[in-house]
Amino acid sequence: MSDKVPDDGVISRSSNFTCGVVEGFYGRPWTTEQRKDLFQKLKKWGMDAYVYAPKDDYKHRAYWRELYTVEEAEHLTGLITAAKENGIIFYYALSPGLDITYSSAKEVSAIKRKLDQVSQFGCAAFALLFDDIEPEMSGADKEVFQSFAHAQVSVSNEVYQHLNHPRFMVCPTEYCAARAVPNVTSSEYLNTLGSKLLPEIDIMWTGPKVVSRILTLESIEEITEVMRRPPVLWDNLHANDYDQKRVFLGPYSWRSPELIGKLRGVMTNPNCEYGPNFVGIHTLAQWSRCNVDGKRDLSLNDSVSADIKLETETEDGGTGEDIPSNLTPNMYHPRRALRNAINDWLLEFSRSKQAWGPIMKPQPVIPVPIPVPILPSINTCMTLTTTTTTAAANSSPATQTISSSSLLNPTTIPYSGSSTDASPIIPPNTTQLEALAEVCSTVPSVPENVPIMPITAPVMNSLASESKIVALPPLSTPLPLPLTVSLAGVPSVPIPLPLPLPSNNVCEPMDCNPTPNGSPAHLVKTAASSTEDIAMAENGSGSSVVVSGNGSSTAMQVDSTDDNTNFQSASNTMVVETAQDSEVVDENSSDALNQLSDKDSMTYEDISLLCDLFYLPFEHGSAGTQILHDFNWLKTHAHVVCVSHSSNGCGADVAETAMKNPEVQEWYDRAAKLDDMTKSVNQLFLKLTHSPNRELLHEIYPYIWDFRGIISVLNSFIKWLGGGKFSNMMGNFTPSSFTWFSKGWKETFMSGEHEPWVFRGGLISDLQRLLPVDSGTDLFVYKVPEVPSSKMYDIRPGNLLTDQHHIRSICQSVYSTAPCDQNLFPDLVNDSFLGFVLDVEQLVALVIEDELEVVGYAVATVDAKQFYSQMKTDFIPSMQTKYPFPDGSFTSSLDQDRIRWFHSYNVEVPEATIMSHPATITCGILPSVQDPSALKRLVVCLLAALRANGCFGVHIAIRPNDQISLELYGRLGFVDLHPGLSSSYVILGRSF
User: Fold this and answer.
1) CA–CA separation, 135 vs 601, rounded Å?
2) For the structural domain made of 794-991, what CATH number should be given?
């Protein structure tokens, strides 16, 4: 399986070319321990540079003027020393652009003083970063400098000369072609930088876009000419700080090694999580040692050698490109590089490492159950209307004004002009990009601002401990900026829109509109003017909060209804999680892999599958694409299962003769393949949870946990379809408006003509959109377990002959909250909440089970009108006979209320509600099930099954004092359809 390039065949890089890692993402920084481990790996892989630039490490950006304390200086010195010992150039970067006054001698002195201090620690390479700031100068700067570029050039040149001409880099404000005004060649800013910045200073560049899919020789030659020097590539290909559901484990791709001779260097800005960067950095190292593109057709003219072709896709969705057999050591092919990286990564999973703190930082969401085509994310600056940060000249704090569109989740808000119709208005015969532009153009921009709540970015310190990140206590001087949001143009929705809170204000890799909400801005500047910094101040004795040291900022979207969700950047307690359910393996043992049992050991195939499921920003891996195609094919061709049943109709069992039909046989064969893939993902999930490397597990767990959940739902839905209990017209009921298979969607996703956060959520979201539940995005909002668990819950079609007693037992457990005379009324709870629903003919029933038993159920009647008719004529009279009107002798008032309800039953569901929400539902799950996603996944599968029967809405009538049901269905996105309709019942419902 291994196909490594021999050392003697490696092409040596030019001494003028540097290659390494820039820690430049938003979110929780890496720990000192992780950085030292990185230096060792960089040395081993032949790389030579590291740039310290974590956006949310508070003395790098928000509090850039503050000098390091003795303790912080010790850790930073240790890092610089460790880098030197491994032959790594340590670049210390500072980001003063949020609030610097370029014309102030005091401000420039503050930069010099800070970098002088770091220089004393042994650092000999520096960088000034002016990315992600407003390209506007203060009034004082306008009086001194001709332009914004002139101001930055002046400060950069002066600092560079003050430091006696060290290795030095600058990241410009226009750092990619998409942000060059009006374009690269005509940009006054870039031309000024190129002509005025001292020629020895390197300039960083991300390529055509913030996250560039392809880099061509022509694009690099263009920027080289403008900047009068080859750029250092700040490569965001593997950055994931803009998307909470994606981590990128694919190989370094879409860059020809022929670019190496055109660049001053390549620095990858990778995933927020440290451990999962193994593949990205390892494959970049392999790329840097090659000079020929192994993917291109060598028969083509050399003029197109750097343009890398899309991998061809087979009919079933797999990738048709194999690793060529004639590759030489100096040829780079991403699949060969991935193979080499996976073989080396295997050992990391067997090493025994502790994980500190919680798995994730909570991610606030917008749980609005209404679908919409792809729109910009609330976590990025990719807004449909301008996002600005303004500050009155004599006012403080500043006010951040965010357009209404920046609050919209890309899959939750409908837009069709001012209409609230869930379908966007898109002209026919348009490409996906044109459709997106059309959708975007309908979003209004209204100047009216509505004050919401102030937000503050977390203050984190990665230099206060070797293995942990410290969240500092709140500042004594409040600095948050009040957030005001333009909401006048937002369509009315039934659920309030929670705002993104400080816990995870994750931005795009180099966010265009930065975090003034976390910056000291002019308040700190004013304080600095009156108080001298202490060069090596001792740490204060104030309390601090220790948070996870695993580098993880991988929060899945969090269930905002969960009582334990507090949206804090860190837990107030430290969780130490060691290796469980597996042998502790010596980190330095060369025989580490062999010490694990076969059951628990990760294999090459396991990691290959993991990488395929979380591949790259503009492409899914072959296994992920195969799952997309298999599920879509099974859903599209499910009609053959229905029409092939016996004469009793679609609800009957599959006839033996039907299985002789080749089309039916093919359907079940493909369903078995999807089931096998689901089992493979489950095995991968189990092996990960048994891994001795708890740190790596904590970083990957949220992603694989979420993916295991969605593929389980898909597989469960297919199993339900296999029973054939759906309408012959299913094909008319289940198409989704915007999926991987919509016209132009896949092509646009892979084109790179957009930033990747336009398609937020990656493969997980693409799979979710295939389920015929257009308005069910809120049901995919979960809180990941704080401690990794191997507990799995699986959904399957219910069998009322064998599952009925489980369903009744669960119902009894859920609703028996008060003492009940079981001898007199043992069936009262089940009669009250299940009624005769289990006897209805047109019934959709699903159950969820763990490895031992059924733990939950979701049951729905397809025809509510017939259901209520039978309730009145048959069930209610029988209940009135079974339970005489209470005379007050019962010990439980709750039981009395339940019995009285039978005698006063007067539920009248309006005809319009039955037309729009024709199904009724009842569900429950054992209180012992702590996973909040379990019931949601069960219900979303039920809704998909109802959709296959032509139902687009479901409802339930509940007594107003039944708080258990009100809370349960409220968490499932049900709302009161008719407020004030009756004092004796409430009708909750939802559309899908």
Assistant:
1) 52
2) 3.40.630.30
- Parallel/antiparallel/unpaired status of strands 355-356 and 576-577: antiparallel
The C-alpha angle with vertex 173 and arms to 171 and 175, in degrees rounded to 5, equals 65
Q: In which band, very low, low, confident or very high, does the pLDDT at 357 lie, cut at 50, 70 and 90?
A: low
Length of the chain (residues): 992
Per-residue DSSP letter, 321:
-
pLDDT tens, position by position, 911-934: 999 999 999 999 999 999 989 899
In CATH, what class is 600-644+654-772? mainly alpha
Contact 340, 323 (CB under 8 A): no
Q: What are phi and psi of 951, to 5 degrees?
A: -95, 130
Q: How many helical (H) and strand (E) elements, i.e. helices and strands, does the chain have?
A: 27, 26
Ranges 13-27, 95-109, 509-523, 777-791: which has the least confidence: 509-523
The catalytic position among 132, 235, 241, 766 is: 132
Give the Cα separation of 37 and 56 in Å (integer): 21
Q: Hey, which bits of 112-199 come out as E strands?
A: 125-129, 167-171
Q: Is 613 exposed, middle or buried (0-12, 13-18, 19+ CB in 10 A)?
A: buried
Judge whether residue 632 has pLDDT over 60. Answer: yes
Least confident span in 6-15, 319-328, 902-911: 6-15
Is 283 within 8 Å of 341 (Cβ atoms)? yes
Q: Which helix (H) or strand (E) holds 214?
A: none
Whole-Å CA distances, 79 to 15, 92, 115, 465, 894 = 24, 11, 16, 12, 65
Write phi, then psi, for 805 (nearest 5 degrees): -70, -30
Q: How many CB atoms lie within 10 A of CB 493?
A: 15
Note the CATH number of domain 18-292: 3.20.20.80
| pLDDT > 90: percent of the chain | 58
Catalytic status, residue 831: no
Average the pLDDT over each of 388-392, 542-546, 894-898, 917-921 and give the range with the smallest value: 388-392
Considering only CA atoms, which of 670, 637, 644 is closest in space to residue 658? 644
Could you give the CA distance from residue 280 to residue 277 in angstroms, rounded to a whole number? Answer: 5
Residue range 288-343, pLDDT digits in tens: 999 899 876 544 444 333 333 434 455 555 454 578 888 888 999 999 999 999 99
Cα–Cα dist 277/264, whole Å: 23
Annotate 390-451 with DSSP letters as a single string.
E--TT-SS-EEEE-GGGG--TTT---BTBB--SS----SS--HHHHHHHHHHT-------EE
Least confident of 565-579, 760-774, 776-790: 565-579
Domain ranges of the chain: 18-292, 600-644+654-772, 794-991
The per-residue pLDDT of the chain, averaged, comes to 77
Please report, for residues 248, 334, 352, 621, 879, the alpha-carbon distance to residue 618 in angstroms, rounded to integers and kept in the order given.
Answer: 10, 15, 34, 10, 60
The residue ranking higher by pLDDT, 556 or 990, is 990
What's CA 748's distance to the chain center, in Å?
20
Q: Are 358 and 575 in contact (CB under 8 A)?
A: yes
d(CA 717, CA 710): 11
pLDDT confidence bin for 782, thresholds 50/70/90: confident
| CA distance linking residue 664 with residue 109, whole number of Å | 77
| Amino acid making up residue 929 | V
The secondary element (H helix, E strand) that includes residue 964 is helix 963-971
Residue 170 C-alpha from the chain's centroid: 30
**Residue 507 pLDDT > 50:** no
SS3 state at 49: strand
Residue indicated by tokens 């004013």 = 526
Least confident of 195-204, 704-713, 776-785: 776-785
For the purposes of burial, counting CB atoms within 10 Å of the CB of 680, is it exposed (0-12), middle (13-18) or buried (19 or more)?
Answer: middle
Radius of gyration of the chain (CA): 30
